[in-house]
């Protein structure tokens, strides 16, 4: 959006100019102006015969006063013909339109008469600065003293608008920001006075040139000048007072002043603030959803996180059913009894030393008293004592802490840990709360937010295109009018048309002339060199050298033999010499000027210079980092690789105003954090660290503060927030962290979407103007010609669009496309009998269904062969029968359900194992019979022409092979997991989604190669930086790492091991960069998991090869990870989305137009729901005057408003409830709840009397009745339900369902209803993708159970997250998929002996050690497929959100209403 604005202004600066002859004719010919009335140019031009730019003098002031007086007289007479509209092309800060021409240089920075007719009678004048930027000032005297022609005022204007002065102010601001990061000293005090003097002088110049506050263009009328006023108002008190933490009030205005000092940043921020109103509706939805989740969480899990495993005192019998002083109603131990034994027991259970803690965990182990909740070890009791986890800040005890937990769920930050604690304390059945409440609501909010951002960017982009089209239309009309007048004059005079002034004659040198000039030997040699260097073979040789050099660099690692190191160094020198020779050859052929005119040659030059620096400084210590510059050679391949070149272009285009705004805000948040919390971290560090040493994440210095801000922007904020609240208090920390997260994430999202949405617009314009690169176009055509077998319907003219067009396709265009795709009928074909056609159609309708084959099922050849043909017809009728298809679907689902029993405990259940073996045999035979029937009915050719039939055939072959191998004694049970693939071809909606993915697969493979190449570059860089540095000496008994003072390197550690210290080991981190293969695994975790912090800590602690790490010894190494997150993560994912959307756009019309992921029936439902959304439902007219009066009351607005207030009061009462509420407050809340039930009951009786049975036609009324009945039932059976069935809080939270009534009552919620309409319209597509997502999760759960069921508990594998049973495996994959904690599971699979036992316990068990390769492939494929499907989910919602805007923009529907006797009644 903001990027669109900036790019649009850049395009404006490149607009065409009129020649002096054309400009003089335009300004001096009245006939030309009459032809330009329609395009709005004539009204902006000065009168004929007058100059455009005239100095503003006192005479001009008198003319303005006369025009103002004339305007008053015409206003009194009621004449509106003199009114002018505000000129959109003459706004302040905009470039001057092209039809004015270039102003004379002596008139720049000089007061000129007003150009806009709208302001000509309002006492204003304009000033033009460099770039023809227009600035508008008031013509009244500034400060009642300085007139527009006053020398002091004109001098102030010249200084204020001078680019040198603007740069001086900007440099002053940057220096001030630099001094903000320095400690207080005499120098900072002196510079503070200097900065204050500069800011005061600038403000004084603005006041002198514009006035202070009375006129429209005065100082205070511009909101940006308020920042200057704040700078001065906060700076002077800081000179004499110690403001402490209030010093941030001085810092914030000065940093924000950077935006006002830079015109580009100012326009970007103005565009962002202008789009803020578009986020009102989605913000309301977000806050409402978070509040609802907070209230539900409070009612369900209040106090559960205080359950702890407490060591049972020695005097308590294990069979004792009660504990002294423990209240089982509240769950707390009370100290009300004065008995000494009770006091001692109270001290015992509240002593933190008696709470069970697992190794490596700070908080005690949580537990619950339910069967499905977590249990305590032997000798421990589960009691509700002490505080909540994480310093007491992870809690559901009150609305505020539940709201923080809900926001944590929404932002997906370490939420899996919160859910694990919740399930362990409350019970495993509450995983349904996660699946049915948390996931859908969070996805709803995030998808609606994404849809709004996309709509804002697209609308802004469309406005930019419209402005450009308007300028092009104006320029075209002006040229046509001038050309027409010129032709008429020539026709009248009878002259000859002469070439225009701008025309040029190009003289081309023929080949003969070239040969004649190349007479010398050197010139002939240069010609041959030119032919050789510019030939394709030369480029091919360079490409081969680059590829081989890349392979050699990728083969380096740790450890390397001396021979390989010598060979690698020799090859490096050879390739470097080749690249030097190549550069010299190109320079000799093209010349220095021609060489550096090509941007790729500059990269070649940098590569050679880096080699020369590395070679000359090879023996200098401390410059080994120059080896990393070799990676520049890899990116030279982008010259011949269009996809990699596109990636580099995306990276280059990111250097825009929006990115600079983000960087300025990062600096602002950094210095504010330093000022607010820097001292608190130092003084209160003992609250968060047992050794009273600063942790890794703090804000006590600049570098750590910057890292912490980037961590929050990355999304990992909750753990740093806990530490901040512990040292500085909750209020300030929440007010600091939440804005960083919300604003920063929105800006990153804007930047992410701008990079391909706005780039698409620019490429469209470039394609229309024919500004494509011939070399790239040629390469593109070659690639398209090579890929015609995969993509037969490509556009060949111009560049392809780089992203999905978000303009919704109309139904008419979709129908036209379907007609054009239908095969043409043969005109020579003779007419057929209508009756015969009707019989054939009836025959097809009888037997043709959309099963796994998309062709006519009738067999090829002669169908009158007797019994064989009849047999095939019978087989065909069987496989096409709905009952048979339903039976096969039931068998497939039953076979998938049988896989859930194939867990690690199956060896102990011989009977179940035997039943599953026989079931597998039966399933295989049934699938075999199905395949034989399809072979007989369809024939081999048609059967094997369908992908789904091929899939069934391969799965069946594997099953038959497994039966044979198991009969031979080979263990093949894991192959049964492939049976889940059969479900993919049985659901039509899933096939639609798979069809889209299959069409986009070639493009995804291409972009995946680019991503792997970029990751290869970072992998090689990681090998050069960290190879051999991730080792450490470890004491397994104390679970501690030695400090460098005790053990310095590997030799010292091995010496301790040789000294019979068996508990000491020299280990390596499981994630490392010792070779490229390991680097890929590490980078996969860096990009998708929380495991990046383990890598970051290991890298910043590294000291050298085989040296013992030290705490934050190499903090600068964090720049590597920051660079990878930006280039290897952000830009790679952006390129992936760009190419994926482009592929969907190319193939979208083939799959249904605007509904990409829906079947035809689902498309009909979606369109029908959009039409029914605003359709009113009618009621029968009431009988009798009494009932009519009741109807008038029931349908009145004041009653609905009163009920809205009652509903909000009910929600507020639910939010007040907390764990520590007193008995009196509880009684008051119960009384209000009872009173509200009576109010809702009276409303129901009133409306049921007024509407009768028509009342139940509205779904919202049914919701009200259901909630009312449940609340009444809750009053009588609450104790019974809570004791024997479930928590009664589940029924209490259903009261929140009444909030849906707000959507139909308030007309201001029309935008919210439109957002929800788009989401509901996307539900069929979401269902299709969701089914595929469930099949993916189910399949990988079964595979994980077979492959990793016996893995020992380690890292994240525990009693909750494991693959031992199907339920635990499914829970693990469900929790891991949307989170970033899967690296802990992968690390458990990467353990090797002696950390795990490889010896099998049974003949069919591999032992506790899993396969690291299998673990990497398992999680990499699952995470990537899951991300792809989630992207499809968001795309579906965004597309339907655009489709849902159609009724709002065109039809403008009103609030749904009921029609009774032609009277509108709110439903």
Helix content: 55-70%
The backbone outline, from C-alpha atoms, is: globular
Cα-atom radius of gyration? 38 Å
Residue windows where pLDDT falls under 50 for at least 5 positions? 1-13, 317-322, 328-337, 495-518, 764-864, 1446-1467
DSSP strand tally: 11
Short synopsis of the structure:
With 1467 residues, the protein is mainly α. The chain has 50 helices and eleven strands.
How would you describe the overall organization of this protein?
The chain is 61% helix and 3% strand. The chain is mostly helical and 1467 residues long. The strands form four sheets. It has a three-stranded antiparallel beta sheet, with no helix packed on it. Helix 6 runs antiparallel to helix 7 (186-210), helix 18 (536-555) runs antiparallel to helix 19 and helix 19 crosses helix 20. The model is unreliable at 1-13, 317-322, 328-337, 495-518, 764-864 and 1446-1467 (pLDDT under 50).
SSE arrangement:
Blueprint: H1 2-13, H2 20-28, H3 30-35, H4 58-77, E1 112-113, E2 124-129, E3 133-138, H5 151-161, H6 163-180, H7 186-210, H8 223-240, H9 248-261, H10 263-274, H11 280-301, E4 307-311, H12 340-350, E5 380-384, H13 399-411, H14 415-426, H15 431-493, H16 511-517, H17 521-533, H18 536-555, H19 562-596, H20 599-616, H21 642-653, H22 657-683, H23 702-714, H24 718-728, H25 730-769, H26 774-786, H27 811-821, H28 834-847, H29 867-880, H30 882-899, H31 910-938, H32 940-943, H33 947-967, H34 988-1026, E6 1031-1035, E7 1040-1041, H35 1050-1058, E8 1064-1068, H36 1076-1088, H37 1092-1101, H38 1118-1147, H39 1160-1172, E9 1177-1178, H40 1185-1194, H41 1197-1216, H42 1223-1251, H43 1259-1284, H44 1289-1292, H45 1302-1305, H46 1310-1321, H47 1323-1348, H48 1366-1376, H49 1382-1389, H50 1412-1451, E10 1457-1460, E11 1463-1466
């Amino acid at each position: 959006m903001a990027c669109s604005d900036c790019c649009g202004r850049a395009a404006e600066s490149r607009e065409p100019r009129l020649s002096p002859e054309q400009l003089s004719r335009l300004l001096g010919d009245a006939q030309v102006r009459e032809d330009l009335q329609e395009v709005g140019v004539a009204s902006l031009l000065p009168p004929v015969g007058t100059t455009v730019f005239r100095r503003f003098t006192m005479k001009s002031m008198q003319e303005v006063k006369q025009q103002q007086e004339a305007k008053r007289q015409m206003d009194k007479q009621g004449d509106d013909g003199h009114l002018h509209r505000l000129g959109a092309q003459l706004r302040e800060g905009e470039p001057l339109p092209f039809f004015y021409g270039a102003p004379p240089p002596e008139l720049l920075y000089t007061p000129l008469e007003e150009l806009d007719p709208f302001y000509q009678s309002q006492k204003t004048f304009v000033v033009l600065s460099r770039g023809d930027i227009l600035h508008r000032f008031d013509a009244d005297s500034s400060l009642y003293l300085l007139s527009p022609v006053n020398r002091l005022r004109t001098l102030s204007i010249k200084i204020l608008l001078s680019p040198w002065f603007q740069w001086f102010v900007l440099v002053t601001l940057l220096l001030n920001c630099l001094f903000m990061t320095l400690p207080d000293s005499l120098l900072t005090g002196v510079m503070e006075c200097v900065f204050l003097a500069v800011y005061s002088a600038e403000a004084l110049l603005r006041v002198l040139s514009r006035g202070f506050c009375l006129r429209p263009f005065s100082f205070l009328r511009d909101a940006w000048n308020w920042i200057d006023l704040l700078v001065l108002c906060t700076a002077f008190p800081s000179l004499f007072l110690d403001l402490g933490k209030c010093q941030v009030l001085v810092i914030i205005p000065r940093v924000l002043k950077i935006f006002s000092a830079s015109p580009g940043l100012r326009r970007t921020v103005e565009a962002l603030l202008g789009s803020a109103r578009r986020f009102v509706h989605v913000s309301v939805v977000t806050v409402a959803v978070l509040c609802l989740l907070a209230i539900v969480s409070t009612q369900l899990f209040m106090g559960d996180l205080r359950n702890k495993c407490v060591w049972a005192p020695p005097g308590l019998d294990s069979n004792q059913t009660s504990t002294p002083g423990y209240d089982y109603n509240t769950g707390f131990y009370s100290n009300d009894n004065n008995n000494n034994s009770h006091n001692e027991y109270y001290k015992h259970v509240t002593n933190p030393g008696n709470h069970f803690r697992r190794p490596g965990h700070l908080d005690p182990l949580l537990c619950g008293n339910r069967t499905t909740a977590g249990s305590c070890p032997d000798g421990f009791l589960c009691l509700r004592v002490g505080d909540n986890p994480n310093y007491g800040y992870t809690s559901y005890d009150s609305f505020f802490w539940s709201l923080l937990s809900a926001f944590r769920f929404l932002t997906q930050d370490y939420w899996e840990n919160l859910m694990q604690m919740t399930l362990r304390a409350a019970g495993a059945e509450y995983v349904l709360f996660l699946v049915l409440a948390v996931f859908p609501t969070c996805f709803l909010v995030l998808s609606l937010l994404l849809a709004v951002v996309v709509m804002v960017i697209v609308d802004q982009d469309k406005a930019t295109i419209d402005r450009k089209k308007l300028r092009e239309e104006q320029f075209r009309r002006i040229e046509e009018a001038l050309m027409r007048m010129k032709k008429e004059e020539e026709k009248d005079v009878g002259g000859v048309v002469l070439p225009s002034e701008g025309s040029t004659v190009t003289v081309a040198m023929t080949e003969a002339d070239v040969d004649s000039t190349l007479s010398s030997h050197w010139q002939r040699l240069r010609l041959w060199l030119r032919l050789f260097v510019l030939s394709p073979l030369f480029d091919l040789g360079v490409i081969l050298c680059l590829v081989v050099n890349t392979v050699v660099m990728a083969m380096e690692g740790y450890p390397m033999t001396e021979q390989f190191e010598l060979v690698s160094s020799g090859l490096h020198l050879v390739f470097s010499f080749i690249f030097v020779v190549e550069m010299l050859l190109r320079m000799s052929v093209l010349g220095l000027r021609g060489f550096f005119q090509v941007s790729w040659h500059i990269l070649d030059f940098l590569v050679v210079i880096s080699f020369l620096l590395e070679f000359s400084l090879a023996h200098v210590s401390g410059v080994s980092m120059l080896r990393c510059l070799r990676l520049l050679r890899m990116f030279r391949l982008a010259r011949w690789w269009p996809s990699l070149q596109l990636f580099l272009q995306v990276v280059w285009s990111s250097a825009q105003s929006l990115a600079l705004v983000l960087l300025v805000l990062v600096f602002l948040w950094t210095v504010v954090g330093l000022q607010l919390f820097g001292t608190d971290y130092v003084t209160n560090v003992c609250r968060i660290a047992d050794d009273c040493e600063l942790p890794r994440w703090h804000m006590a210095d600049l570098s750590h503060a910057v890292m912490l801000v980037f961590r929050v922007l990355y999304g990992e904020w909750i753990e740093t927030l806990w530490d901040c609240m512990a040292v500085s208090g909750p209020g300030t920390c929440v007010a600091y962290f939440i804005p960083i997260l919300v604003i920063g994430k929105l800006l990153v999202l804007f930047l992410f979407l701008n990079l391909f949405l706005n780039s698409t617009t620019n490429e469209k314009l470039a394609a229309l103007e024919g500004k494509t690169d011939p070399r790239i176009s040629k390469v593109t055509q070659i690639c398209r010609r090579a890929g015609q077998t995969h993509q037969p319907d490509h556009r060949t003219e111009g560049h392809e669009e780089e992203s999905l067009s978000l303009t919704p396709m109309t139904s008419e265009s979709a129908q036209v496309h379907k007609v054009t795709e239908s095969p043409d009928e043969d005109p020579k074909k003779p007419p057929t009998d209508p009756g015969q056609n009707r019989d054939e159609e009836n025959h097809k309708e009888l037997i043709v269904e959309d099963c796994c084959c998309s062709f006519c099922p009738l067999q090829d050849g002669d169908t009158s062969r007797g019994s064989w043909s009849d047999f095939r017809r019978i087989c065909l009728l069987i496989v096409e029968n709905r009952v048979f298809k339903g039976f096969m679907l039931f068998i497939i689902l039953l076979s998938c359900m049988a896989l859930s029993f194939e867990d690690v405990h199956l060896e102990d259940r011989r009977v179940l194992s035997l039943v599953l073996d026989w079931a597998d045999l039966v399933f295989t035979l049934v699938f075999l019979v199905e395949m034989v029937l399809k072979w007989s009915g369809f024939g081999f050719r048609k059967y094997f022409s369908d992908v789904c039939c091929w899939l069934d055939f391969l799965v069946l072959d594997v099953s038959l092979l497994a039966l044979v191998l198991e009969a031979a004694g080979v263990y093949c049970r894991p192959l049964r997991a492939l049976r889940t693939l059969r479900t993919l071809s049985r659901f039509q909606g899933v096939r639609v989604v798979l069809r889209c993915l299959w069409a986009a697969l070639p493009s995804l493979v291409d972009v995946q190669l680019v991503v792997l190449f970029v990751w290869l570059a970072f992998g090689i860089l990681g090998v050069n930086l960290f190879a051999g540095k991730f080792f450490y000496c470890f004491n397994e008994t104390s679970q501690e790492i030695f400090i460098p003072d005790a053990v310095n390197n590997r030799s010292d550690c091995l010496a301790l091991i040789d000294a019979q210290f068996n508990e000491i080991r020299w280990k390596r981190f499981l994630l490392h960069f010792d070779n490229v293969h390991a680097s890929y695994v590490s980078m996969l975790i860096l990009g998708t998991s929380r495991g990046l912090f383990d890598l970051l800590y290991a890298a910043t602690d590294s000291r050298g090869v085989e040296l013992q790490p030290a705490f934050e010894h190499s903090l600068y190494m964090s720049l590597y990870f920051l660079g990878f997150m930006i280039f290897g993560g952000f830009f790679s994912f952006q390129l992936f989305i760009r190419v994926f959307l482009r592929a969907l756009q190319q193939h979208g019309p083939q799959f249904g137009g605007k509904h990409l992921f829906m079947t035809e029936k689902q498309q009909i439902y979606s369109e029908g729901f959009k039409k029914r959304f605003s359709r009113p439902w009618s009621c029968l007219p009431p009988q009798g005057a009494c009932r009519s009066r009741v109807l008038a009351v029931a349908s009145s607005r004041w009653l609905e408003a009163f009920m809205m207030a009652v509903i909000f009061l009910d929600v507020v009462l639910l939010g007040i409830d907390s764990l520590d509420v007193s008995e009196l407050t509880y009684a008051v809340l119960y009384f209000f709840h009872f009173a509200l039930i009576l109010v809702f009951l009276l409303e129901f009786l009133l409306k049921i009397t007024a509407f009768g049975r028509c009342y139940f036609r509205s779904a919202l009324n049914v919701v009200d009745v259901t909630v009312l009945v449940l609340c009444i039932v809750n009053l009588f059976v609450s104790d019974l339900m809570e004791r024997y069935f479930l928590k009664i809080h589940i029924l209490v939270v259903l009261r929140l369902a009444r909030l849906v009534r707000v959507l139909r009552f308030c007309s201001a919620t029309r935008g919210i209803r439109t957002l929800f309409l788009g989401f509901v319209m996307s539900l069929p597509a979401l269902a299709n993708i969701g089914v595929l997502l469930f099949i993916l999760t189910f399949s990988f759960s079964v595979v994980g159970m077979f492959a990793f069921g016996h893995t020992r508990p380690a890292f994240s594998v525990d009693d909750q997250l494991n693959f031992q049973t199907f339920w635990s495996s499914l829970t693990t994959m469900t929790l891991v998929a949307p989170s970033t904690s899967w690296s802990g599971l992968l690390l458990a699979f990467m353990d090797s002996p002696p950390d795990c036992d490889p010896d099998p316990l049974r003949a069919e068990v591999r032992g506790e050690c899993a396969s690291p390769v299998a673990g990497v492939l398992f999680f990499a494929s699952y995470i990537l497929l899951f991300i792809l499907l989630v992207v499809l989910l968001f795309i579906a919602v965004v597309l339907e959100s655009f489709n849902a805007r159609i009724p709002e923009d065109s039809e403008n529907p009103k609030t749904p209403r009921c029609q009774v006797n032609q009277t509108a009644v709110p439903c």
